[in-house]
Specification:
Blueprint: E1 3-4, E2 14-25, E3 28-33, E4 35-36, E5 50-52, E6 55-62, E7 68-72, E8 82-87, H1 89-113, E9 117-122, E10 127-131, H2 138-153, E11 158-163, H3 165-168, E12 183-188, E13 192-195, E14 210-218, E15 221-228, H4 229-249, H5 257-292, E16 295-297, E17 300-306, H6 312-323, E18 328-336, E19 339-346, H7 354-364, E20 368-371, E21 375-382, H8 386-402
Parallel strand pairs: 1-4, 17-18
Antiparallel strand pairs: 2-3, 2-8, 3-7, 5-6, 5-8, 6-7, 9-10, 10-15, 11-12, 12-13, 14-15, 16-17, 18-19, 19-21, 20-21
Helix pairs in contact: 1-2, 5-6, 7-8
The structure holds zinc ion.
C-alpha cells in the first residue's frame, strides 16, 4: 500500500513522491503516488486540497484497491516521474481542530451523561454528533460545553500509535472498531482512546475552543451541532456582528436587544389592534357613503362599485358592512396586478341568489367563482373588464326585480 505520511506526522505539509500510476477517476485526471501527505475523505473527515508541482489537487479519495487517488484539475505533464506535493494547511488544520475536538467532546458526553456517539458528520460550516439518548436539555449542553473546554485548557497530549489485536483488547476504546487486525489508536492522554485513521492536533490546547451551537431531536436521539478552533472563533464573530447589527436597528446596546424586541412586539400588537379598529370605522364610512348614493331598484338599494385600489379582503369587509343594512345588493370589485376580483353579497331579507348571479356573470367574461346565496367571490377576469362585469350583473338584478 502507498505510504500515508499523515499517519506519522499530521503537520507535514510538503513532501516529494514517485508517480506510481496516472489514471482517470470519475472522469477526472488522477494520480497514485508512492507516498502522500494528502488525507483522503474517510472516517467522516473531509479530504485535503493542495497541489502537485503546481497542478491543483481538488479531491482525494481511497480507490477500490485501497490506494490514495489524487484528483487533479488537469493531467500531470507527460513523463512526470516524481512530484513535489503541498497541502492546503489552513483547510487541513481546521479539519484537525474539528476532528480532535470531536474525540474529546464524545468522551465528555460519555463520562458526564453516559451518552455514546453513534455517528459523526464534519460539515463545511457545522459538525454534528448523534448521541444514543433522549434529547438533551440546555443545562446539560452547557455542562458538557464547560467540561469539554476544561479539557482543552488542560492541554493534554494527543498521540497516535498502532496496536495488534492482542494489545488492542487492553485499550479502553470508546467504540469497538469495525475491522480486525492492526489498529491505529488516537489517545487524548489518559482520557480518550479512539480507533482512528484521521489527522489530529498534538495537544488539546490546539483545539482552541469547543462551541456547542445547538441541539435538535433527530430520529428520537439528540443531534448536537458544534464547531471548534478557528471556526468557533469565526462563528462567534459572525454572531457578534449579527447581534450588533440588530442592536443598531433597535437603536440600543447589544445587552438591551431582548428587552427592546419585546417592547417593539408589544407596540406592534397595539398598532395592529388600532389599525383593525380604524379599518372597521373606515368601512362604516364607505358603506354609508355608498348606500346614500345607491340606485333604488324596486325596494332594493343596488350598489355596484369598482374599488380599484383595494385588497380583496377589504372589499369583503365592505360587502359585509353594506349587507348589515336591510334591502341591499352589493356588487363590488377590485383589480390587482391586472386581475379583477369580484364580491357579490346581499342582505338577509333579499331573495337574489348572488352565488348564481356571480357564476353566470363571470362565465360570460371567462372568469369563475361562486358561493352561497347571500355571499360569493370570484375572479379570473381582466382588470379592464371589471366595470363591464359589474354593469352586466347590475342589469341582471334590475331585470330580476322588474320581472
Ligand atoms: Zn480521529
Amino acid at each position: 500500500m502507498d505510504e500515508r505520511l499523515y499517519y506519522e506526522d499530521a503537520y507535514l505539509t510538503r513532501f516529494s513522491a514517485q508517480v506510481m500510476e496516472r489514471l482517470t477517476h470519475e472522469e477526472q485526471p488522477a494520480v497514485r503516488l508512492s507516498r502522500s501527505a494528502f488525507y483522503p475523505t474517510s472516517g467522516g473527515q473531509p479530504h485535503d486540497t493542495g497541489g502537485l508541482d503546481g497542478t491543483a489537487v481538488v479531491d482525494v479519495q481511497v480507490g477500490a484497491d485501497g490506494a490514495v487517488l489524487h484528483l487533479l484539475t488537469e493531467p500531470l505533464p507527460d513523463g512526470t516521474e516524481s512530484v513535489r506535493g503541498e497541502i492546503d494547511w489552513t483547510r487541513r488544520y481546521d479539519h484537525m481542530q474539528q476532528h480532535s475536538g470531536q474525540h474529546l467532546l464524545s468522551q465528555v458526553f460519555y463520562r458526564r451523561l453516559g451518552l455514546e456517539t453513534v455517528s459523526v458528520h464534519f460539515g463545511d460550516a457545522l459538525n454534528t454528533v448523534d448521541l444514543n439518548g433522549p434529547p438533551l436539555s440546555a443545562a446539560q449542553l452547557a455542562d458538557v460545553e464547560t467540561a469539554a473546554n476544561g479539557m482543552v485548557w488542560k492541554n493534554r497530549p494527543i498521540r497516535a500509535y498502532w496496536v495488534d489485536e492482542e494489545e488492542r483488547a487492553k485499550v479502553p476504546l470508546r467504540r469497538a472498531p469495525a475491522v480486525a487486525g492492526a489498529t491505529r489508536i488516537v489517545e487524548i492522554d489518559k482520557f480518550d482512546w479512539s480507533a482512528c485513521g484521521g489527522t489530529h492536533v498534538r495537544r488539546t490546547g490546539e483545539i482552541g475552543l469547543i462551541s456547542l451551537v445547538r441541539v435538535e431531536k433527530h430520529r428520537g436521539r439528540s443531534r448536537v451541532h458544534f464547531v471548534c478552533g478557528g471556526r468557533a472563533l469565526a462563528d462567534a464573530a459572525r454572531r457578534r456582528g449579527l447581534l450588533a447589527e440588530t442592536a443598531g436597528l433597535l437603536d440600543g446596546g447589544v445587552d438591551d436587544v431582548p428587552e427592546l424586541v419585546s417592547k417593539q412586539q408589544k407596540a406592534l400588537k397595539g398598532a395592529e389592534r388600532e389599525l383593525k379598529a380604524l379599518r372597521e370605522e373606515l368601512v362604516g364610512y364607505q358603506a354609508r357613503e355608498l348606500l346614500a348614493a345607491a340606485e333604488i331598484v324596486g325596494n332594493l338599494r343596488l350598489v355596484a362599485e369598482a374599488l380599484n385600489d383595494s385588497e380583496p379582503a377589504a372589499v369583503q369587509r365592505l360587502a359585509r358592512a353594506l349587507i348589515a343594512e336591510p334591502g341591499v345588493v352589493a356588487l363590488l370589485g377590485c383589480a390587482q396586478r391586472g386581475k379583477g376580483t369580484v364580491v357579490f353579497a346581499r342582505s338577509e331579507d333579499c331573495s337574489t341568489h348572488v352565488g348564481s348571479l356571480l357564476r353566470d356573470t363571470l362565465k360570460q367574461f371567462g372568469g369563475g367563482g361562486g358561493g352561497r346565496p347571500d355571499f360569493a367571490q370570484g375572479g379570473g377576469v381582466a382588470a379592464e373588464r371589471l366595470e363591464a362585469v359589474l354593469d352586466t350583473a347590475a342589469e341582471a338584478v334590475r331585470r330580476e326585480v322588474s320581472s
